[in-house]
Amino acid sequence: MTQMSFPLAEEPDELSREAGRKLFAGETSFVKGVVAMSGLPPADRLEICFAGRSNVGKSSLINALTGRKGLARASNTPGRTQEINYFERDALYLVDLPGYGFANAPVATVAKWQELMRAYLSGRPTLRRAFVLIDSRHGIKKVDDEILTLLDKAAVTFQVVLTKADKIKTSEYPALLEQVGKALAKHPAAYPELILTSSEKGEGIPTLRSTINGLLAD
Any idea what DSSP says for residue 74? Predict the structure, then answer.
């Protein structure tokens, strides 16, 4: 059997799991919403960002990751997040980027915040990794290619986090992983492990926490 080039990340061992839990055991606080590059906070610590098409579940994932319900504003309306939202946890910034793709907003507004996102990804020196969220029900779609290509060009390592895993059957996982792996094979900035999550069920959250903690440790 051929080994997958983009396998699921292994579940953390007990020590790594506990280290990841401790990282997010304290308070994570909202810092600010940014609408222009001049408004970014000082680049004085490591930061990670979360990107994904509108309504993929970024806010829900951040809430599950930090254990703070309502920290990031979740909405059933695509395109509600129109700013770069910064959250702070000790020596780490977590950054929620505007959703891309369809958004329930004027075209000029969409263009403005998408340009801000491109500028951020291309020019933030302390950005260590981008976590690109992909809906497990749909896999990687054409609308995702723009940001994946941008991350390649910016030389920003990105890791795909599959969301809403509870919405599909376990028997559908192999086809999903194959589709995503094939799509990522052409992107040199893609980190060669996937993280499968469900914010609603808490699945994969310890793995994501441990991964983030590992970036800090490095």
Answer: -
Instruction: For residue 132, give the nearest of 124, 38, 143 by alpha carbon.
Output: 143
Q: Are 23 and 61 in contact (CB under 8 A)?
A: no
Q: If phi over 0 gives left and psi between -120 and 50 gives alpha, with beta otherwise, what is residue 13?
A: beta
Element (H, E) at 215: helix 205-217
Closest to 176 measured CA to CA, from 156, 196, 154, 191:
196
Domains detected in the chain:
14-217 (3.40.50.300)
CA distances from residue 177 to 3, 9, 12, 34, 41 in whole angstroms, order as listed: 12, 12, 20, 34, 37
Tens-digit pLDDT profile for residues 182-212 = 999 999 999 999 999 999 999 999 999 999 9
pTM: 0.91
What are the residue ranges in the chain where pLDDT is below 50? 1-2, 75-80
**Radius of gyration in angstroms for the set of CA atoms belonging to the chain, rounded to a whole number:** 16
What is the C-alpha separation between 51 and 184, in angstroms, rounded? 15
